[in-house]
Batch of 3 targets.
Target 1
Amino acid sequence: MPTYKELLAKRQDLDAQIEALRKSESQDALATVRQLISEFGLTQADIFPAGRAKSPLKGNTVAPKYRDPQTGATWTGRGKPPLWIANQDRAQFEIK
């Protein structure tokens, strides 16, 4: 059975081999990418589009469905109900 020091030495050797192969393979991959970019005339914007894709729902507003007759406050019916409508019949607050 190998000793602790022997195993650590093997680990260091393996880490060095892994790092050397990673560098070699990453250089090969980079050469392939550069070749494809020049072959197809790609730009940085083609490869790395700016920003995130926007959600089609973001920024859309929803018309209010309920109105508090006393204060004029409105609620769309989404999310947690406000205190003025909670635990009450919502039909009486509907906007028609």
Note: DSSP finds two helices and two strands in the chain.
Target 2
Amino acid sequence: MKIFLSSHGHLASGLKSSLEILYGNCDHITVFDAYVDENSVQEQIELFFETVEEDQQILLISDLYGSSVNQAMSMYLDRPSTTLVAGANLAFLIGLMGRDSITREELKDLIEQSREMLCIVNLEEEEPSSQEDFF
């Protein structure tokens, strides 16, 4: 599985930096920080797809559903074995680590788990039950 992660500003490279601190080398993840220079999302996705092998599963991940970055990435959904996920967060990306592939059902479960990691933390409440299972 190859991953293309893009965001407005430096969020994408920051998320990859965090993953590399936790997991080491993440060569299977290509990042593009949009709107920080003259390069476009479309140009970078085209370069990314030049590195993709015919039988590889592709996961495109954007920071925000419906945004310009997400819309640009959606133009590539007609490519074989390509899926687009919006709303990148570190919990979601951690769940992808160590996987060679992921089914649609597993992807839905991982998205739900990563949503649960976004919560208000109160001292008197227990941590979400899925947190132990997640890590």
Note: The first helix runs from residue 11 to 23.
Target 3
Amino acid sequence: METYALPYDPEIPLICMDEQLIQLLDDSRPPAPMKPGQVRRVDYEYVRKGSCSVFLFTEPLFGWRRVQASERRTKVDWALQMKEVLEADFPDAKKVRPAVCLC
């Protein structure tokens, strides 16, 4: 927690990273149309449409974040995400402080 209390330093940004596999779902049947006095009726069954991986990066002391989805989650995908953070988002950083994501 001491890390988050430090002042923002643009030369040493605090980078939090999280990744998650997400199921992509679709309705098995279209929802029934709403009628006056009734709530929308949705069937609980679904059709699985695959999955994707979501990468989340934040710099909480600066108030910055970036979220990107990809078709898969491999070591190469992770490395490309990190490369983009370091080269595109924080190109002038001398060092990056990694942190546990509290999001």
Note: The first helix runs from residue 2 to 5.
